Amino acid sequence: MKIKLLVAACAALGFSTASLAQTEIQWWHAMTGALNDRVNDFAKDFNASQTTYKVVPVFKGTYPETLAAAIAASRAGNAPHIVQVQEVATATMIAAKKAVMPVHELMKASGEPFDQKAYISAVTGYFADAKGNLVSFPFNSSTTVFYYNKDAFKKAGIDPNAVPATWPEVMAAAAKLKANGEKCAFSSGWQSWTQLESFSAWHNVPFASKNNGFGGTDTRLLFNSPLHVRHISNMADWMKKGYFTYGGRTNEAESKFFSGECMMLTSSSAAYANIKRNAKFEWGVGPLPYYRDVAGAPQNTIIGGASLFVMTGRPAPDYKGVAKFFTFLSAPERVAGWHQATGYLPITTAAYEVTKKSGFYEKNPGTDVSVKQMIEKNATPTSRGLRLGNFVQIRAIIDEELEGVWGGKQDAKTALDKAVKRGNEQLEKFQAANK
Amino acid sequence: MEKRVRFDSKLLPYLLIAPQIAITLVFFFWPAGQALWQSMQVQDAFGERTTFVWFDNFITLFNDDAYLESFKVTAIFSTAVSVLGLSLSLFLAVKADKVIKGTSIYRTILIAPYAVAPAIVGVLWTFLMSPSLGLVTHWLSLVGVHWDHILDSKQALGLIIVAAVWKQISYNFIFFLAGLQSIPKSLIEASSIDGASPMRRFWDIIFPLLSPTTFFLFVVNMVYAFFDTFAIVDASTKGGPGRATEILVYKVYNEGFKGLDLGGSAAQSVVLMLIVIGLTVVQFRYVERKVQY
Predict the structure, then answer these.
(1) How far, in Å, CA of B160 to CA of B158, rounded?
(2) Partner residue opposite B259 with nearest CB, options A393, A404, A407
(3) 3-state secondary structure of A266
(4) CA of B289, closest CA in chain A: separation in Å?
(5) In this structure, are A131 and A255 located in the same domain?
């Protein structure tokens, strides 16, 4: 008995000295609920897998709050090692050459194997510099998909297994749902992302000049083209007819869908987990609708979500640990597990293969829709993503002007022209600040 | 015999006020100076590239329709909050002053909302008036009003006004009640003997005697509506729909913390600072001088 106790004490002592010698790696993130648990699991598993480093995940609030905290910390010379940054702030981070350590450099300097080709091209495209090297580490990427309530379809006499693929088909279904007494036939989350950004890539039309901003900070917005105006004025029309209900600027529409209030939804593929947990009806997933008469459509959709940036200013040996952690996170089974639990994309092709082989897609129909949308065609310069400075403000401007359309204050053309003009002012500001 | 402590040392008085001055310098003048300095710069989020641009940020600001619109929204909002808040709480205070039984219960209930945090107030009213499941929305629909503040900008402004007024009523109420109780009973009795009706007594005696309190509260309410309602807006409308409820402080936050445009946001804070200075001057010049209890 005494010996056992002694052994235990020694072990505890050994353990505590080991943890003292460990190098702590701060990981600031914005993941809540079930996603937060997964993030903590990643850190716990990594910490258990080796003894040199200890990853400490810290929840810092919403994406903007996390970023603001990281920037303040960086300016004070006390940045975290890793910070999770929302896709819209990517240009801001990449422009910060002193504060951010590009991931491809980090991996090379630490001698960790890192194959960029393992990632889906639409993912690499979004987070790479002009030369195509990854600046941040892709983590939680989602894309825009279409959800529909199969029970409501059946009740309205629509074939629940024929997913409406185009906008006219969606609206034909909406008309039937409405005629059947449904109050809210269709709603959309993240209107700027789903109805303009992803919409542009899906139809292979530019959202902004200079390859959507990848070609330089002198990019200007182009989303007031006839196709964009056509879509937004269609939506305004659908709103008047009572087919489309506006939910709000972010993911409010998702709860309207799973609560059974709205019957069709375009939103993030990451809404999957919540819909699965909450919906008390049969539902299906389909690709984002498009217009069939547009040449080249459908191309591929654009990703959303966030990636992990490495901040400078920590002792050099720490970065070896960061690189090791990234290698750990890149393991196909981990990426696949994250994808299956959350509805985020399997950002590497290997993770997709692992998931496919496991039979997950057969058991959970619709979960591969987002993946196929991203990988069926190689991304073109107009569809690889967006790289716009002050994008947070630009999105807010788009939200404001679109709300003017939904509220019946202005028509689609006026709204998009105004949004482009105001957005361009933001781009000019960014260009001036980042000369 | 005059009793006065005399300090012969010239240094001691300064030493005694030094802590207060230090606090003022560190917590007020230093940040204010920094804001002023930053408002004349264009800087990226991480502060890696800084350009000194003199008053360019202010020029951009006042050429921006969105900013001028925000001024208008703030003016409507703060006037509505002050006027509604003051009249409602004056009404409640006059009524509560007359209550004889259960005084403390009434007063406690009326004071309670002041203890609720602004963010909670925002959430509370958003729920009550939520277009799909709100209780108040349901009542409104019974009388034929279709409430949807997510799309209707006037209703959105109405929502934050109601929430802000509700929170501030208690504060005004306490001051009004104290003001009412300090009015000499003899004046009111005298006028009753002269045959003045209750309305007449209120408008000719009580209201003028309350005017210093009213003016003080008006300034305090304006400051409250300008600066302390951030949480209510953030928790309910987030400035939308469009820019219908984007009051000045909310815009500073939006552009500084969400948009990471530090120069532009600092310029807006400087403008706000000037407004506060203006309000304070007004308060000192008029309130402090004319108060006669």
Answers:
(1) 6
(2) A393
(3) strand
(4) 44
(5) no
Q: Check CB contact under 8 Å for A248 and B66.
A: no
Q: What is the pLDDT of residues A66-102, one digit of tens each?
A: 998 999 999 888 999 999 999 989 988 998 889 999 9
Task: Specify whether A312 is located in the same domain as A179.
Answer: no
Q: Report the range of poorest mean pLDDT among A2-16, A337-351, B22-36.
A: A2-16
Q: Which residue of A has its CA nearest to B238?
A: A249
What whole-number distance in Å separates Cα of residue B164 and Cα of residue B196?
37
CB pairs under 8 A between A and B: 85
Fold of B57-290: MetI-like fold (1.10.3720)
Percent of chain A's residues with pLDDT above 90 = 64
Question: Is any Cβ of chain A less than 8 angstroms from the Cβ of B254?
Answer: yes
pLDDT at A304 over 70: yes
Please check whether residues A284 and A421 belong to one and the same domain: yes
Instruction: Tell whether A287 and A307 lie within a shared domain.
Output: no
> What is the average pLDDT across B51-65?
87
What part of B 44-83 touches A (C-beta under 8 Å)?
44-49, 51, 60, 66
What is this model's ipTM? Answer: 0.72
> Which of B52, B147, B151 to mutate to probe the A interface, most A CBs <10 Å?
B151
Residue A165: CATH number of its domain: 3.40.190.10
Whether residue A91 lies inside any domain: the answer is yes
Per residue in A368-393, pLDDT tens?
A: 999 889 888 888 889 888 999 889 88
Do A149 and A273 lie in a common domain? yes
Does residue A399 sit at the B interface (CB-CB below 8 Å)? yes
Mean pLDDT over B132-161 rounds to 87
A426: nearest Cα among B242, B260, B39, B53: B260
**What is chain A's mean pLDDT, rounded?**
90
In a domain, A406, yes or no: yes
Q: Are B255 and B83 in contact (CB under 8 A)?
A: no
Q: Within this chain, do residues A99 and A243 fall inside the same structural domain, yes or no?
A: no
Q: Is A226 in the same domain as A334? A: no
Residue from A94, A244, A392 whose CB has the most chain B CBs within 10 Å, to mutate? A392
Is A48 inside a domain boundary? yes
What residues make up the domain containing A114? 2-141+303-363
A149-163 in b/e form (b: 16+ CB < 10 A) is bbbbbebbebebeeb
| Co-location of A26 and A158 in the same domain | no
Q: In a 3-state reduction of DSSP, which class is residue A268?
A: strand
- Measure the CA dihedral A152/A155/A156/A162, to 10°: 70
Please judge whether A407 and B241 are an interchain contact, meaning their C-beta atoms are less than 8 angstroms apart. yes
- For chain A, what is the domain count? 2
CB B170 within 8 A of CB B114: yes
Show me where the domains of chain B are located: 57-290
In a domain, A239, yes or no: yes
Span A159-207, pLDDT tens digits:
999 999 999 999 999 999 999 998 899 999 999 999 999 999 999 999 9
